[in-house]
Amino acid sequence: MSEPLRSRPWVAIVGLYVVVCLIWGTTWLGIKFAVTDLPPLLAAGLRFLIATPILLGLCWFRRVPVLFTRAHLGFAAFVTLCYFAIPYLLLNVGEQYVSSGLTAICFSTVTILIVVLSVPMLGTRLTAGQVVGVVVAFSALVLLVLRIQDVSVTNGWGVVTILGAAFMHSYAYLYIKKHGGQVHVLTLNTLPLAAAGVMLTIAGLLTDSGASAGFTTRAVLATLYLGLVASALGFLGYFWLLQRLSAVTMSFIFVIFPVVAMLFSAAVEQTVFTPLDILLMFLILGAFAWTQLSPRLGARRAAPEEPPTPAQLRQLYAAAERAYPAECCGFVRRSGVRECVNVIDEQQSVSDRTATTGYVFSPADLLELSRSFDGDDPVVLIYHSHPDAGAYFSDEDQRHAVFDGLPVYPVDHLVIDVTAERAKGARRFRFSEAEGRYVESGAYGEPRPRQAQSVADRLGDR
To answer: Which of 271, 256, 323, 315 is nearest to 148 (CA)?
Structure first.
């Protein structure tokens, strides 16, 4: 008898990864069928309206709020217009004049545009390998467009609108990353998608009096596919994988789905690709992949030692000894250690703990922690000490480090065992996707286990 699927999670992960690539790869053919008969405004709007009930149901099932807070209303309007309404309208308009395969290639520039735009928006630095990848990708794209498309104003504008959609998506993605970190992913997508659907559908009906004639069997089936499969299931599958796979692995979906789109375009639309066309396409996709891999390969060569280094560990021990009998706290980047201020004693109105039994980062430290993930030197480790209590990750630590089965920050945690004599050692804890919690992944020195007679135990679980 075969082993149950749940005991082999990689089977589900690999299978869903393939399904998402197929869904994203066939989306472009679905758009082509829809806009052949329906006006672009109406086709985009109906797609979102069809997907909305599924996302609303998921919000209800997961008990996630649908509405944005008052402080995020402007942000919600931005997502509605710049992530959904305008880019997808541009895609639908452009694909009236461009094959589905070339549309997918053009839109996959999102990956490389994110790399370029992250410089002014997030303050990141491009490596030499990334610069080469950007130049090669866009040079090959220009050559490919000139070869495949007839030299005409109409086809040229089709490519421009698709690249415009890719640019807006890239900008919106980085804006969301920078300003929407506190908004749940379902909240982020559900209401803006619904609002974009309503606006586009109404605009489509008002601007084209003959729109009803476009509801052919082909257009209806294509729109249902785009709404139920591409927008809803594709979205759910992608974000399920995003919680379990690295960003690099997920970025390769943008390399794979254009290949799928090209194959379907050749089979269904009878698009002819010459050997040179295929070479240029794979050169573009290879350059995209290189922009993702090159900085990480360079980082491995430049910084093979995972924090904390021996020097950093000595600094952490010294911080714990200075703070004793209070808890110290801070975080570690590859570039160094940030010793933070424990302000829990200033939070007595919301916490019954003191600095000897807990820690809270100051607002300035929290801001630096959050912003670090937008740059090229992110925090990789959060640390705190347990005075006279041993090195363990308590239920209280788990409660603050994990939300809705996912880590609050994509970091490891280090707990330092310190007494009045000295810091005895530390234990490292890494998030386990299988268990949905942090588990021990390593130890330094000779840390003690949880001390049964510690002050922390007399006060209850830390």
So the answer is: 271
pLDDT in tens, 83-108: 999 999 999 999 888 888 888 888 88
Q: 310-458: what CATH class?
A: alpha beta
Cβ(85)–Cβ(200) under 8 Å?
yes
pLDDT in tens, 197-251: 999 999 988 887 666 667 889 999 999 999 999 988 888 888 777 666 766 677 7
Contact between 296 and 249 (Cβ < 8 Å): no
Cα 446 to Cα 424: distance, rounded to the nearest angstrom: 6
Whether residue 155 contacts residue 312, with contact meaning beta carbons closer than 8 Å, is answered with no
3-class secondary-structure state, position 55: helix
Q: Cβ distance 443 to 428 under 8 Å?
A: yes
Contact (Cβ atoms closer than 8 angstroms) between residue 423 and residue 320: yes
Segment (H or E) for 349: none
The single-letter DSSP state of residue 228 is I
How far is Cα 316 from Cα 85, in angstroms, rounded to an integer?
A: 49
Closest CA to 159 of 214, 112, 107: 107
Q: Strands 379-387 and 406-407, how do they pair?
A: unpaired
Q: Helix axis angle, 100-107 relative to 9-37, nearest 10°?
A: 120
Cβ atoms of 397 and 344 closer than 8 Å: no
> Which of 162, 170, 134 is closest to 40 using CA atoms?
162
Residues 368-398 as b or e (16 or more Cβ within 10 Å = b): ebeebebebebbbbbbbbbbbbbbbbbeebe
Domain ranges across the chain: 5-301, 310-458
**DSSP state at residue 361:** B
The answer to whether residue 296 scores a pLDDT higher than 90 is no
H or E segment and range at residue 315: helix 310-323
Q: Give the whole-angstrom CA distance, residue 106 versus residue 103.
A: 5
